[in-house]
Amino acid sequence: MSATLYAILYGVAQQLEVIRPKFVSKTHEYVLCYARNQVLLDMFYAPISASARKEYRLQDSIGTYREKDFVFQNPSKNENQRYWISCPDGELVRPKDGYIYRYIKKTFDEALKANTIVFKRSERGPLVTKEGMQAHWNIYTNKYLGDGTGAPSSLLGIEDSDNLVGTYNRGVKDLEYLFGKLRIFNNSKPVDLIKFFMRMVGVSDNDVVLDFFSGSATTAEAVMRANAEDGGNRRFILVQLPEECKENTPASQAGYRNICEIGKERIRRVARAIASQTDCTKIVHGGVRGF
Fold first, then answer.
1. Does residue 34 sit in helix, strand or coil?
2. Which one of 114, 211, 279, 288 has the fewest CB atoms closer than 10 angstroms to its CB?
3. Is the pLDDT at 143 greater than 70, yes or no?
C-alpha cells in the first residue's frame, strides 16, 4: 500500500514510518473508483491505444475488425458455454476441460448467422471431439473496432498519445506553465489524468463535475480545457478546506495564505491562457464564484 493511500485511510498519525525504496523508482499510483449505485453506472470506456488499433487489419461490410479467440481458458463448469458445435466438415467439437466459449448458444447462433464466426483448421486448438480426441478445428469471432473505445486498462498509459495521463512530474509542469518556476503546490495531479477520467465515465456537455478535495484546482483546469477543445459547457464545483500555506514555502512567500487562494488563482490564469490561445470567450463567461 502506498504511503499516500495509507494516510488517506488511516490518518497520518497512524503512519509510523515511510519506507523509501532503495532499488526501484516509484512511478505509479493507485486510483480507487466508487459508485453510490453501481447498477446506474454505465461501463467505463477509454480510447483504444494506437498499438492496439494496429491489430485491427481486417475489413468487411460491417467495419474494421480483428479475429479473437472464441474459446478461452476459464475453469468455469458452466455448460451454457460448453455446448457442441458442428464444424464445416461435420465434426462436432466442444471446449477441453478448463476452457469455455465466449458466447452462450443463442449468441453464437446469431453471430454465425451474421458471418462473424470463423472456423480454421488446427491440430492444437482447445477443442475436442465427441470421442474425446483432439479436434481438427479452432473457432474465432470477429471483434470490431467500432468507435475506437474499449474497457480501460488497469495500467493507464503515460506514453501512448491516445491514453496520455501523465506522471507526477507532468502535474508539476502543468503548474509551472501557469505560475512559472514557482513550486507553488506539491503532488498536483496531471490535468491529462483528470481529462482521461472525464472521458472514461462519459462527462459531456452541460454535466457538472464535483471535486471534494480540489487542492490546486486541477479538476477545474481539466474541465475548462475540455470545454475549449470541443465547445462544451461543462461546469465544476470544487470543495476544499482553507488549509493555511506553511510559512517560508514558495506559496506563502508568493502571498498565498491558503490552498483555496492557490486554486482560485489557477482558475483565473487558466481562463486567461485559454482565451489568449483560442481567441474564445465562451469558456470563461460567468466567471467563477467562491464561498
1. coil
2. 279
3. yes
